[in-house]
Amino acid sequence: MPEILHELVFDYTIRNVALGSAILGVAGGVLGCFAVLRRQSLMGDALAHATLPGVCVAFMLSGSRASVWLLLGAAVSAWIGALVILAIVRGTRIKQDAALGIVLSVFFGAGVVLLTAIARSGAAGQSGLDRFLFGQAASLIWPDVVTMGALAGAALLAVAVLFKEFKLLAFDPAFAASLGYPVRVLDVLLTSLIVVAVIVGIQAVGVVLVVALLIIPAASARQWTDRLSVMVLISALFGAASGVAGALISASGANLPTGPLIVLVATGIFLLSLVTGRRRGLLWSFLRDRRAAPEGLR
Amino acid sequence: MIHLKETEAPPGAFPLEVRGLTAAYREKPVLWDVSFTIPEGQLVGVVGPNGAGKTTLLKVVMGVMRPAAGRALVFGRPFEKARRWVGYVPQRGSVDWDFPTDALDVVMMGLYGRLGWLRRPGRREREIALQCLEKVGMSEFARRQISQLSGGQQQRVFLARALAQDARLYLMDEPFAGVDYRTERAIVALLRELKERGRTVVCVHHDLSTVTEYFDRVVLLNGRLIAEGPVQEVFTRENVEAAYGGSVAFAGGG
Q1: Please, which residues bridge with residue B218 across strands?
Q2: In which domain, by residue range, is A286 found?
Q3: Distance between CA atoms of B92 and B252, rounded to whole angstroms?
Q4: Are the Cβ atoms of B101 and A225 closer than 8 angstroms?
Q5: Tens digit of pLDDT for each residue in B29-46?
Q6: Could you tell me which of A40, A106, A281, A289 has the fewest CB atoms within 10 Å of its CB?
Q7: Percentage helix, strand, coil for chain B under 3-state DSSP, each rounded to 5
Q8: Distance of CA A220 to the CA centre of its chain
Q9: Domains of chain A: total
């Protein structure tokens, strides 16, 4: 283990992978809190899947594997997906869960078709697109990390500046509207930030699993606190820890893929939190109930 | 009471004036040509059967829903230009009480409108929020996570938040729904205090048996306006039966 820590500092690849994974853990952890509290977890999943056709189209148009172009395509595609969900919910009698399912499957299906088409055409660097399916953290190079860091930094800054407004939006949108806040604009902005968190994560973790980094750290953090600000910090910490741990386990010679390992570490933290979490963990609830129960009932 | 900044007095127009208001969800009309005027310093109950358009009326007044025809004026202006004088208490069931926050924090949300963008609530806001919690008998629960409060206590937190708004007109959506006796008394005492301070309160209300006790005026709705005016004059058996269609257990003044 000390050797892997040495490499974490000095090995170019491992440093990139660990840093990139930490960045996506923090972005997913922070934005995930709002997604989970607003019951938009599955929105994150649908938008993640909706990025795939955008990645392919961006590649076909630019012929470039540079992550900036591919991520831009991903963002546009996810945005269109979000608008389609909104249009379906507002314009028809179809409910949100069905709309999410429609967008997720149709966009993902289109993405897979495009991936296959690109593979058939034998375009150079096609293998570079496969990684968006399940993620390939090991392929992260320094410019990727910089892009991820800039995107995540911008998203986190927006959350820091609008924290009070986002909290109100998540808790009581009707009251927010009565105060004169532009609820629809804030809603679109928060959803866009969730898209940014997804974009930050898809290279390393892939469109299929990235939603886990929105949901799991947030759900874990909720077990430890009853304050939103603390929940956001803990969730960011859990996300980052999962990212770095997953990257290190993967690099330590197990020859296992980084993305799924990150998700597994996060799940481990979640299980631990579910049992021992100070505020709502099962263990503490059990002890509290015992103490609260009248003598005769023990 | 400490205030950030005394809200300037509204113009001398009626707190709420509704003229020929018609509203519909898709093709289904919910409110039909409703007109009435609420004078200042009155406690007003909006009463009618389910689907009578009570909550829709609040939505249209607050500009959340566009009317098909007619309009609502708050202190003689459209709601957007009068919202600083309006406090709102949504239905308790409209939010997730499992949200990670405490009672004090929820009450401080009532001050966000005056804080504006970027500024965060600080010590001053905390003090105002604590005073508001005290007024509804909830100061000892200030730091309690909101899911650990009873339904009545949650309702009182919502009322404290509205108090923090320091409004001239309060719009409340069923504040008495499903609360315990203690909360009911606390709300009644609060409404009377607001009235003494010249505030106007419009409550969507469900319980016919308490209308005469709680309110000065009543708006009887059933899609159309059945009657509006002082409780003694308007809350009669004929009017209530007209609103509810057929006989009802009636404990009114007429």
Answers
A1: B45, B229
A2: 2-297
A3: 27
A4: no
A5: 888 899 999 999 999 999
A6: A289
A7: 40, 25, 35
A8: 14
A9: 1
Say what angle helices A183-205 and A67-91 make with each other, to 10 degrees. Answer: 140
Distance from CA of B96 to the nearest CA of A (A): 7
A225 φ, ψ to 5°? -150, 160
Angle between helices A212-222 and A228-249 (to 10 degrees): 130
ipTM: 0.87
Helix-strand-coil split of chain A, %, nearest 5: 85, 0, 15
Q: Are strands B43-47 and B28-38 parallel, antiparallel or unpaired?
A: unpaired
d(CA B166, CA B6): 9
Average pLDDT over residues A24-32: 95
CA distance A187 to chain B (A): 15
Measured between its terminal Cα atoms, the distance across chain A in Å is: 47
- Per-residue b or e along B26-56, where b marks 16 or more CB atoms closer than 10 Å to that residue's CB: eeeebbbebebebebbbbbbbbbeeebbbbb
pLDDT band at A123 (very low <50, low <70, confident <90, very high): low
In angstroms, the Cα distances linking B170 to A223, A234, A239 are 37, 38, 43
CATH number of the domain enclosing A126: 1.10.3470.10
- Pick from A167, A183, A176, A185: nearest CA to B90: A176
Q: Does B116 touch chain A (CB under 8 A)?
A: no
B30 contact A CB<8A:
no
Tell me the mean pLDDT in the region A267-273. 94
In sequence order, which residues have a C-beta less than 8 Å from that of residue B134 and are 6 or more positions away? none
